[in-house]
Structure formats: structure tokens, C-alpha cells
Amino acid sequence: MSSTQSNSSANVTFVRPATFFIKGFSNITHVKYYYMFLSLVYVVTVLGNSFIMYIIYLARRLHTAKYIAVFHLALSDLCGSSALIPKIIDTFLFEHQDVSYEACLANMFFVYHFMNLQSLTLLVLAYDRLVAIFFPLRYHAIVTKTAMFLIIGVIWIFSVTYFSVLVGLINRISFCGYNVIDSHFCDQGLIYKLACNDNSINIMMGKISFGLLMCTPLILIIISYFCIGLALLNIAHGAERIKAMKTCTSHLMLVAIGYIPLISNNIAALTTTIDPNTRIINNSLRQIIPSMLNPIIYTLKTEEVMLSIKELYKRSTVNMMTERNMKCIRINTN
Predict the structure, then answer these.
(1) How many Å apart are CA 107 and CA 185, to the nearest integer?
(2) Burial level of 50, CB count in 10 A (0-12/13-18/19+)?
(3) Which residues are paired to 21 by β-bridges?
(4) Contact present, 116 and 190 (Cβ < 8 Å)
(5) Are strands 180-181 and 19-22 parallel, antiparallel or unpaired?
(6) Rounded Cα gap, residues 288 and 81, in angstroms
(7) More exposed terminus of the chain, fewer Cβ within 10 Å: N or C?
(8) Whole-angstrom Cα distance, residue 54 to residue 226?
(9) pTM
């Protein structure tokens, strides 16, 4: 232990450990198979999100405000999984469970930052669908590419600022001996509990984080879809109603995959006693599975994306045939 920071006004010295010990996944039989599963999930996540970003980049029909948000969701999923899964595998499979203080805080920041971006992007997509259903004729005038870039920029500024403060507040905690984190990553809630001085501000920030960044987006999404439901009831023709509902299907599936496990885990934690390893596995799956499934859902369940993929495939096939014909002509001429 080393003393590294002091508060001269209060004449208080804050003590921090040189390292934290990440204890998660202890005493689990055949746990290596779980790490293999995580590796597979990571590969699928990287390929799937890279593919959907590549399609959005190449297909002109997808150069719209909505797909800027979809691109951002894929980027957030990719970065969030990259901040979490490789570190889990390195920490536990290769037994690098001692993590330096600074590396632990950096890992915490990036995991929470990209989780927050995923949550807020789902809220942005809900706003997009709300405007599309309520103001179909003015949709392209309201939800412009410039407006979407501005919204995403505000989200980044807010998230970076908020989590910089949240992580920075850990520097006011004094750790007086125990440095073991019973989780699969540097979980801020568990780190606060290791404090041997007043950590009330940190606990308050943790509760604000849950309410503001997890519950509030979900509540706003539910309200938006309640309003969408009321608007759909007023649509006279059943075919138009079904068509409008189809535009929301993909987003509703993403919301369900992202939030139902979160709600279930929190209800289970409040109502029953959960084995620590079960809690860790549930939390890790909740963080990584949505990132893997999101691009698959948007590829298979969104007609615009499927049409773009077919067009790009036909275009690449035509280009290949043209190149072959040109080569044959050159050979015959020579």
C-alpha cells in the first residue's frame, strides 16, 4: 500500500493499493469452457458489428439519420465488448488477476462508458421511431443527419464527462488493506465497498447512475412506445398499421434483449440470495450477449438492410464478371 494523494485542506491522506485482485469465476468446474464461449461470442460480435457498419458505409440507401444511430450502436457494441471480453479472458484464463490501480480505473471507465452509449443509443432510436410514426410527412425535416450527429455528439460529451467524474471520485476513497474485487471486471459498486473512509458520495453517485443511466432511458422508451401504440390505433387501414409496426420490430427486440436481463438480474438480487458465481456469470452475459445479437437482428429483421446487402452482392458480382471479361478480351487480343 502506498500513500499517493492528500487533501491539504482537510489534512487527510488517501491511501490506495498498488493493485486490485479480480476474484471472479473462482471455484467453478470446467470454467475454461466458459472462456471459450466468451471467445466465440467476441468473434461473432466483432464480425457482426463490423459487417453492419460496413454495409451502412457502402449502401447509399442507408445514408440516413436512422442508420447513423444504428452505425453508432454497432460501434458502441463493438467497443464495449472489446473493453470487456479480452480483459476477462486475459485476467482469468491467463491468471493475470492482479490489475494495477490505474488500469482498473481505465477499464471501469471504458466498460461503463460504452454500456451507457448502448443504452442511450436505444433511446435515440426510440425517438427516431416516435417521430416517424407521429410526423411521417415531416420526419426527414425533423430527424436530419445533422441533428443525429449533434445528438450523438451530446451523448458522447455527457457520457465522457459523467464517467470521468464517477471514476475520479474513487481517488477520494482510502483503501486500508482489502483490495479484492469479487467480480469479472473493475466494478465501481464493489470498489466503493472496500473503502475505509466516508464513501457516501460514491454510493450516491452509484445510485444516480442506476436511476439516471439505466432506468430513465428504459422509462422514456416505454413512454415513447406507449405513444406510438396510441398513434397506431388511430390508423384506419390495417395494412398501414402493420407496415408501421414492422418499422419498430427490430428496435423493440433490441430493447428487450438489452433490458429484460438487466431487470431480471436486479429483481433476483433484491428478492433472493444469489451465489456470487451465478451473479457474475449472469452479469457478464447481460453485458456481452446484446452486443452479439444486435447486428444479427438488424441484418435479418430490417428490410432496408437486407435489400442493401442484396444490391451490394449483385454489384460485386457484376464487377467481378466485368473484370473477368476484360481479362479474357486482353488475353484474346494479345
Answers:
(1) 8
(2) middle
(3) 98, 180
(4) no
(5) parallel
(6) 6
(7) C
(8) 33
(9) 0.89
SS (H, E, C) 249-311: HHHHHHHHHHHHHHHHHHHHHHHCCCCHHHHHHHHHHHHHHHHHHHHHHHHHHCHHHHHHHHH
Nearest to 172 by CA among 24, 2, 12: 12
Q: Residue 93 carries which side chain, given as an amino acid letter?
A: L
Give 26's contacts (C-beta < 8 A, 6+ positions apart): 277
Q: What is the DSSP letter of 16?
A: E
Instruction: Give me the residues paired with residue 19 across strands.
Output: 100
What digits encode the pLDDT tens for the residues 8-61?
434 456 788 899 999 988 888 888 899 999 999 999 999 999 999 999 999 989
Q: Can you state the percent helix, strand and coil of the chain, rounding each to 5? A: 75, 5, 15
- For residue 107, what are the contacts with CB-CB under 8 A and spacing of at least 6? 83, 87, 99, 185, 186
CB 196 within 8 A of CB 17: no
Q: pLDDT value at position 321?
A: 77
DSSP 191-207: HHTTBSS--HHHHHHHH
